[in-house]
Amino acid sequence: MTSLPSPSAKKLGLVIDLDTCVGCQACVTSCKEWNTQGYSAPLTDEHTQGAEATGVWLNRVHGYEVKETGQDQSRIVHFPRSCLHCEEPACVTVCPTGASYKRSEDGIVLVNPETCIGCKLCSWACPYGAREYDQSHGVMKKCTLCVDRIYNENLVVEDRQPACVKACPTGARHFGDLGDSTSKVSQLVAERGGYDLLPEMGYKPVNKYLPPRARRDAATSAAEALPKPDGSAFDRLFQWADRMLSSKRASAGASDIDHSGKLEG
User: Fold this and answer.
1) What are the Cα distances from residue 224, in Å, to 185, 216, 218, 239?
2) Reported confidence tier of residue 130, pLDDT bands at 50, 70, 90
3) Domain span holding position 175
């Protein structure tokens, strides 16, 4: 079985905001497009036009209906799922050939297709369902955090991030070093109460999820957005302007009515 390296100070991973993810699948398709020609290439598809279509997707998005706490209404929460690059990944320790391994320099979990025998032990050990078996090639595949992008010096700095992060139109996906408490992703987790998926399993996933914010009643939200009178000089000025404009509108409306009481024109 495969042993794990000593814990690395650098822990690259994703922070996914469940509040702003709209389930558009942009992360899914961009991941497929990049990785079908990159480190995990190819990502096969079979019978794409049939009822039994199969294929390899390293990132998937599921939708769940969730009832709002203390309210009668519910909402749809979109839940992206991919490898969480755990600090203590069971998928690595069960691998009989060492094909599944964790990098000591940045904590990324990868699969070496040259030594993978497709035994599927890693997929059985992973509680997150993050492993994909490629039937065409007989090997396991998974999210690589786009390792061939984030270190690619031929790309401009802005593009050295996972394809899913780059493609997200709502900014729901964030990438960075979660081992650095001062990094933007670590600060985001601290501010928003980011959490581990299935922490009771003890695998210590590096990727974090930010919980959906509670939705406020629409009428209450609109009322709270209106400015409140405070008796200031600006407040009195606006009240005066409102009275003047209201009186002008009333006068203009009256001039459009003839003596017979009918509207002119």
Assistant:
1) 31, 10, 10, 19
2) very high
3) 12-210
